[in-house]
Specification:
It is globular and about 30 Å long. With about 40 residues, the protein is mainly alpha-helical. The protein contains one helix and no strands. The chain has a domain of about 25 residues. It comes from Siminovitchia acidinfaciens.
Length: about 40
Amino acid sequence: MPVKRVETCGEVAKLLHFLTTKEAVYITGATFDINGGLLMS
């Protein structure tokens, strides 16, 4: 769902922090588009 705004540095930092946790152990070779859904519309 597009949010129609640019993400903040804090939101990007939360993603990066999550990717360093044990919960993200099975996420490999993924690409995360950080664009607020602008490419979807």
